Amino acid sequence: MAKETVVITGGAGFLGSHLCDKFINEDFRVVCIDNLITGNSDNIAHLAGNENFLFIKHDITNYIFIAGEVHYILHFASPASPIDYLKLPIQTLKVGALGTHNVLGLAKEKNARMLLASTSEVYGDPKVHPQKEDYWGNVNPIGSRGVYDEAKRFAEAITMAYHRYHSIETRIVRIFNTYGTRMRPNDGRALPTFVMQALRNKDITVFGDGSQTRSFCYVSDLVDGIYKLLFSDEINPVNIGNPDEITIKEFAEEVINLTDSNSRIVFEELPLNDPQVRQPDIGKAKKILNWNPIVSRIEGLKTTIGYFKSLL
Ligand code: UDP
After folding, report:
1. Which of 21, 162, 194, 240 would suit a FRET pair with 270, their CA atoms being 20 to 30 Å apart?
2. Residue minimizing CA distance to atom 23 of ligand 1
3. Ligand 1 and 214: CB distance under 6 A
4. Which of the following is catalytic: 72, 85, 123, 148?
């Protein structure tokens, strides 16, 4: 039987490349599209030469042409770390808006099911804790994070509009902080920054007083959740993340311990509109997808620290 084809936008990025692996392993044909502005071809180099894998270097804010049948589209293209979208504000807005429009056009043309990678950032600096899918969020549209938050909120809106108006099969995952191998050591996020600083015995830069919280999910758990969501019947957004919440200061201490580092913690200015708390309510994913994260932070961190060590 001919394999089904899945198109993965942002397929050379951190999450996209893990999804390429997952779908190749599940016996799909994978077409990976990436313009490599934050993605890296090293992440997919091991798939080069695989007859079921095709890489297309393309900016999806321009018309997307794919020959032949497409059954599924996973839309993961976007700068996704705060310093990336601060450096690339227009590209971030364009890929969330024009890129998502093009992806939905491709889904309509091919009669494919489209899954949108949305984000916990749609909840902004949340006034409801933990965050449940029915919370509408607290976002500053003109703040520096607004370019990402509003692009993703628009992406959700246009995805639902295509579903309602054109009857496109759509799924929306709201991804909370995720980490693991293939994260860029210098992407500016707390986790790779702290691990690299600790491995080099440099000061650990905690922003603000470190009382803000995050909840970190290991990438293999996230990929499992996304796979289950794609093949479920759920149209409305579903949170996928690990609810194990920790303050950023405690997290910095944990990284120092796990790396046996001599680093000290230093405190720097908190960026504007930095969410004070973040924790997914995953009741919906548990119930309808029968999904639960299984990798503990310590276990996931050990693997990830090993990966970052290999880059030194
Ligand atoms: N953070 C920090 N030091 C850094 C980078 C980030 O203290 O070197 C903080 C950041 O202000 C935020 C948290 O760590 O409160 C998580 O930031 P990250 O960039 O990982 O992503 P976010 O969850 O804010 O999207």
Report:
1. 240
2. 177
3. yes
4. 148
Domain boundaries along the sequence of the chain: 5-179+218-242+280-289, 190-212+245-278+297-311
Query: Which atom of ligand 1 approaches the CA of 145 most closely?
Result: 25
β-pair partners for 30: 6, 53
The Å distance, Cα 270 to ligand 1 centre, comes to 9
The CA 235 to ligand 1 mean position distance, Å, reads 31
Alpha-carbon span 127 to 176, nearest angstrom: 16
Residue 137 Ramachandran class (φ > 0 left, ψ -120 to 50 alpha, else beta): left
Global pTM? Answer: 0.96
Residue 70's H or E segment, with its range, is none
Closest Cα to atom 3 of ligand 1: 206
| pLDDT tens-digit readout, 274-291 | 999 999 999 999 999 999
Among 3.90.950.10, 3.90.25.10, 3.40.50.2300, 3.40.50.720, what is the CATH number of 190-212+245-278+297-311? 3.90.25.10
**72-115 pLDDT tens trace:** 999 999 999 999 988 999 999 999 999 999 999 999 999 999 99
Spatial CB neighbours of 23, under 8 Å, sequence gap ≥ 6: 6, 8, 30
Q: Is 130 in the pocket of ligand 1 (CB under 6 A)?
A: no
Cis peptide upstream of residue 130 (ω within 30 degrees of 0): yes
218: annotated active-site residue: no
CA 136 – ligand 1 centroid, Å = 22
